[in-house]
Design brief:
This protein is of the alpha/beta class. It is built from 11 helices and 11 strands. It has helices at about 15, 25-45, 55-60, 60-70, 85-100, 115-120, 170-175, 180-195, 220, 225-240, 250-255; strands at about 1-10, 50, 75, 105, 125-130, 135, 140, 150, 155, 195-200, 245.
């Protein structure tokens, strides 16, 4: 099983690197990328899970309605991408559910920040995918976290996939910077070992983000835009050729019975 997910949010990454971008640009860039993602998924007839901030969802109702109409799952990415309080757990779940008349059962904290799963459970979620079980310099050290899914404080934890040996992360930066054939080898090793793969990306990766004013380092912009469209299209085709199925996080939780 392959769990394909996308964190749909304000494209505020330039602000991390002292770049300049207006709020309107942040939303438009992510909207443009989300359209491309939905087109790819529709072409391949597969389903995915979209973790959305309330801020992005409120300004992109036409796209959120489209993804729901096409059978994808909507989950919470809290209220804002750059600001977080525990109260946003419950507030974002309720607001997204009310706005789009859908049940929100999953959460991913922006930038994979640590969160108390007791608070996640109290806020009404049944699963949490907010941990990358590896070491990322300057971000986190989660080498003590189990590589595969587990239960914590009554909440199913679904970590992002890392390779069974050396915990090489298979997240979005790896997808952009590794030669695709190497990424496929790591993905296949992980699939064979774990029986599932949990990958996540962002809509702005599918847009043109090589604007000098954004001041982004090259490792974040390589193979973005049209190159990312081609790479994901290629990867999905390859996975399908191997006869693996794509499922939403909700479907995954139902299948494993946790």
């Amino acid at each position: 099983m392959v769990l394909l997910s996308f964190d749909i949010e304000e494209f505020d990454m330039p602000l991390e690197y002292k770049g300049e971008i207006t709020f309107e640009e942040q939303i438009l860039i992510s909207q443009n990328g989300l359209k491309k993602i939905l087109d790819i998924l529709k072409k391949h007839e597969i389903k995915a899970t979209f973790f959305s901030t309330v801020i992005f969802a409120k300004r992109s109702t036409f796209l959120i309605n489209r993804l729901l109409d096409e059978g994808h799952e909507l989950a919470s990415h809290t209220w804002y991408h750059s600001r977080y309080e525990n109260k946003h757990l419950k507030e974002s779940r309720e607001e997204l559910g009310k706005l789009f008349s859908t049940k929100i059962i999953g959460i991913r904290i922006p930038r994979m920040r640590a969160v108390d799963n007791r608070e996640v459970f109290k806020a009404g979620y049944s699963y949490n995918s907010s941990v990358n079980p590896t070491w990322l310099p300057g971000r986190y050290n989660n080498l003590q976290v189990p590589r595969t899914y587990f239960k914590d404080k009554n909440v199913l934890q679904i970590p992002a996939s890392v390779s069974p040996f050396f915990r090489i992360p298979l997240f979005w930066l790896s997808f952009h910077n590794f030669p695709l054939w190497i990424y496929k080898i790591l993905a296949m090793l992980t699939l064979k070992n774990d029986k599932y793969l949990n990958l996540y990306f962002h809509p702005w990766e599918f847009s043109n983000i090589k604007n000098k004013s954004y001041n982004l380092p090259s490792f974040t912009t390589v193979n973005t835009g049209d190159a990312m469209v081609r790479r994901l299209d290629n990867f999905i085709s390859w996975v399908k050729e191997k006869n693996y199925t794509f499922v939403t996080f909700q479907q995954f939780q139902e299948r494993i019975g946790l």
